[in-house]
Write a structure and sequence with these properties.
Elements (H helix, E strand, L loop, with lengths): L5 E11 L12 E13 L2 E15 L39 E5 L9 E10 L19 E8 L1
Antiparallel strand pairs: 1-4, 1-6, 2-3, 2-5
Length: 149
């Protein structure tokens, strides 16, 4: 039996220069995990009416010196291009932060945790809009959010 149940996730955003918001590398994103307790009886899964949400926001993305300010934490300084700018969950040469949430308060012996995940921009699902003209970069690439848990 476990004495503690946690969500561990490393979330990073990559991609810029192909959509109008410069997501997902340089825009602030929110990440929501919703946990519902469940019990399995005779092969049937029964969900609790109660659930709890745990959220993380990659708030340093897009700041002018977000990564430059993290050189003392291991970020590799003085790279070419955009290295000083804050990114979504990572910086060049630095480690990505781990998001942790204790979800055990919902669970009792023998229960399962049903976890759902939402990646959001401005609190909503993100629907990229292509950039136009000077907004675009020929070196850019499409946005992705990477999550490992």
């Amino acid at each position: 039996a476990s004495s503690r149940t946690e969500i561990h996730a490393i979330i990073t955003g990559h991609g810029w220069g192909t959509d109008s918001e410069d997501c997902a590398e340089f825009c602030v994103t929110q990440h929501k995990f919703t946990v519902t307790a469940a019990v399995e009886l005779d092969g049937q899964l029964y969900l609790s009416k109660e659930s709890e949400s745990f959220e993380d926001e990659l708030s340093s993305a897009g700041s002018d010196l977000g990564c430059a300010e993290k050189v003392p934490e291991g970020v590799t300084p003085n790279q070419h291009g955009t290295w000083p700018f804050g990114r979504a969950g990572w910086c060049p040469g630095g480690k990505a932060n781990m998001f942790k949430a204790n979800v055990g308060t919902l669970l009792h012996g023998g229960m399962k945790a049903i976890v759902s995940y939402e990646g959001l921009f401005d609190g909503q699902d993100y629907h990229p809009k292509p950039c136009h003209g000077d907004q675009c970069s020929s070196n850019g690439f499409d946005a992705t959010i990477n999550m490992k848990s």
